[in-house]
Amino acid sequence: LDDIETIENYRKAYNPQNAPRRWKKAERCVSLLLCVFLLTAVIVLSLVVFIDGWMCHQSSLYFFSSEMKNWTESRRYCRERGASDHHQQQRGRTVWIGLSDSDEEGRWKWVDGSTLTSGFWTSGEPNSYMGLEEDCVVASYGWNDCPCNEAFRWICEKTIF
Predict the structure, then answer these.
(1) What is the mean pLDDT of the chain?
(2) Confidence of residue 40 (pLDDT cuts 50, 70, 90)
(3) CATH number of 56-159
(4) 95 near 117, Cβ under 8 Å?
(5) By three-state DSSP, how is residue 153 classified?
(6) Residue whose C-alpha is closest to residue 105's, from 72, 139, 134
(7) Does the structure show a pLDDT above 50 at 143?
(8) Of 62, 87, 94, 96, which is most buried, counting CB atoms within 10 Å of its CB?
(9) DSSP letters along 57-110, please?
(10) What are 42-53's pLDDT values in tens digits?
(11) What is the reported pLDDT for 89?
(12) Cα dihedral: 102, 65, 58, 88 (round 10)
């Protein structure tokens, strides 16, 4: 008799008709976790492979140009993409940085409006060489003021978070 009751209890407990009720919550949890995982993967991949030419580092995206533009055109390029000129130098490659004294001679300001507090000027710079209006800054192994209409590569920076 005990065996019959055990078999009957087993049939009731594992009746396939009862399965949907028992597993419904578990299926919802697994489905939700899968959706969260896939969404996270899509976001991470879109940040790493954002747009051709943009690279992710820490909490920013960087664009390293391969073409050359003057200072104004390079700033426009960055702003049109929701970015700003990058404030740091890239050693060994001459690039525009977002620094200028075009508003007031000798008062160097970043494109975000903040005033330069310390710099990495090459020896003898800034100098407005030969009386030229050298109001913009390029960086290579150090900073150099030069005319804003010269063409150089540039770096854009876009904050992710």
Answers:
(1) 78
(2) confident
(3) 3.10.100.10
(4) no
(5) strand
(6) 134
(7) yes
(8) 96
(9) ETTEEEEE-SS-B-HHHHHHHHHHTT-EE--S--TTS-EEEEEE-SSSTT--EE
(10) 666 555 555 667
(11) 44
(12) -30
CA dihedral 86, 87, 88, 94 (to 10 degrees): 70
pTM of this structure:
0.60
Q: In angstroms, what is the C-alpha Rg of the chain?
A: 30
Instruction: Tokens 């140009």: give the residue.
Output: 65
Strand-strand pairing, 153-159 and 143-146: unpaired
Q: What is the spatial distance between Cα 12 and Cα 15, in angstroms, rounded to a whole number?
A: 5
pLDDT over 60 (residue 30): yes
Query: Coil, strand or helix: which one is 141?
Result: coil
**Domain boundaries of the chain, sorted by first residue:** 2-48, 56-159
Q: Extract the tokens encoding 24.
A: 């419904």
What is the DSSP-derived secondary structure letter of residue 161?
-
Question: Distance between CA atoms of 49 and 40, rounded to whole angstroms?
Answer: 14
Residues whose CB falls within 8 Å of the CB of residue 158, separated by 6 or more in sequence, listed in order: 54, 60, 61, 62, 63, 81, 82, 83, 84
